[in-house]
Design brief:
single chain; mainly alpha
Length: 259
Amino acid sequence: MAKKHENYKELVWTLAKTDFKLRYHGSVLGYIWAILKPLLLFAILNFVFSSIFNPKGSGAHYYSIQLLVSIMLWTFFAEGSSAGMGSLLSKAQLVTKIYVPRWTIIVASTINATLVFLMNLIVIVVFFAIYHFMPSIGSILFFALYIFLTYVLIVSFSLFTAPWYVKLRDLSMIWEVALSALFYAAPIVYPLQILPARIQKVVLINPMAFMINFNKEGLISDHFANGYQNIGLVLAIAAVFFISILSYRKFSKRIAEDI
């Protein structure tokens, strides 16, 4: 059994590395795009909104740092969930020609997104160094926790949607629109505090909005969610993960035939 699990690990890692290499194969800038894409979005949004939400004299680049962290975490979720949803269909030849556990293909696609995110973490560290700002140990630990929970959320979404996407190709279009809506529904470009109190509670029901908000507030001002809120978040994501596994087991049986 241990050897079988080890073989699965090697298979997942091989698929993830292959996807990562193929993603940037043939482009002039290659792996630089992994960093450049979220940086360009950050540059545009920072230029447009910094004067609105961080007027001169209000702090030492706090808005810019918070915006960068939020965009990196959101990009991780958006790209990971989209890649996971389309993973089985994109590997149609692998699914139909030979037998491999279908979940390994899905997990490999999420690891590919994680590799890109880890490269982006370097940018975050550089920005903190440029602004001479050092987060507290507590905020770094919570940041690591929220990254892990974001990954679990990505895997959960991917396990749930990948078998469905084989049948319903419109899911990619629907999810693309949903991601655009969720981006502006989360406190990424604006501080949560500008919303009415009752709206803030509704916004924080979204796990990604919750983690993005308390990530950027924790790293800058050591303002964290309380223990009950964090326990509720962990339990909610654990429940989603469990449901996604049950759904995957039920709807993944005829994937090869549906493709």
